[in-house]
Specification:
Blueprint lengths: L17 H4 L10 E3 L7 H15 L3 E2 L13 H12 L6 E3 L16 E3 L5 H11 L3 H10 L8 H4 L3 H6 L24 H4 L7
Parallel strand pairs: 1-3, 1-4, 2-3
Length: about 200
């Protein structure tokens, strides 16, 4: 489906084509916006962009990487990111975990969007174990030492048991974004945006 705030209607899959989905030809500026979805291989893509940037002498803006992932942003937060991207030099790349932003709604030039998709179930399982990983948590707690440490039981939780027991963490509730668990279940937000209709 395709959704925009100016035209809040969803297109049926049968109406889509490669030509219609080609963002590059619709871009107003030659800036790549890699609004990297979580757990879709975006870490490898980040490294590729950085290596290619060094090799081909283009700028990679990673300021968005230092922020916590927010499932939904208000208009002012979206506009701030859109303005930052629009102000980059042509040939640059901006990388951040952020949902799709409708640049038209801010009267700003559209960049070239790049992202990836992963099997949704495999992605959720990957996220479940990723947030429990020692490497990720060492970095996280180094950045945010004041944050509460989860219990040992939480770190040892098994995904299958979590689903079967009806644990709140492993339940999908439509129209609900719970920051308590850094809810990253909806890949669609990376392509739809911050509007309630995208939930």
């Amino acid at each position: 489906f395709v959704y925009t705030q100016k035209n809040p209607s969803f297109l049926q899959l049968s109406a889509l084509s490669a030509q219609r989905l080609n963002n590059t030809r619709k871009a107003d500026i030659e800036v790549v916006f890699f609004n990297r979805g979580t757990k879709v291989g975006s870490e490898a893509m980040l490294e590729l962009f950085l290596d290619l940037g060094n090799y081909n002498d283009y700028y990679v803006d990673r300021r968005g990487l230092v922020q916590l992932v927010k499932p939904k942003m208000d208009r002012s937060e979206q506009k701030e990111i859109a303005r930052r991207i629009a102000d980059l030099e042509e040939g640059s790349v901006y990388i951040s975990h952020v949902n799709w932003i409708d640049f038209d709604s801010f009267d700003l030039p559209k960049p070239i969007y790049v992202n990836m998709v992963r099997d949704p179930v495999e992605r959720i399982i990957s996220w479940f174990y990723y947030i429990r990983g020692s490497y990720r948590n060492a970095i996280f707690f180094n950045k945010f030492p004041q944050r509460k440490v989860n219990s040992e039981e939480w770190y040892k939780k098994n995904f299958n048991d979590c689903v079967r027991s009806g644990d709140e963490e492993c339940q999908y509730v439509q129209m609900n974004v719970r920051e308590k668990y850094q809810d990253q279940r909806r890949q669609s937000l990376y392509y739809c945006g911050h509007n309630d209709n995208c939930l």
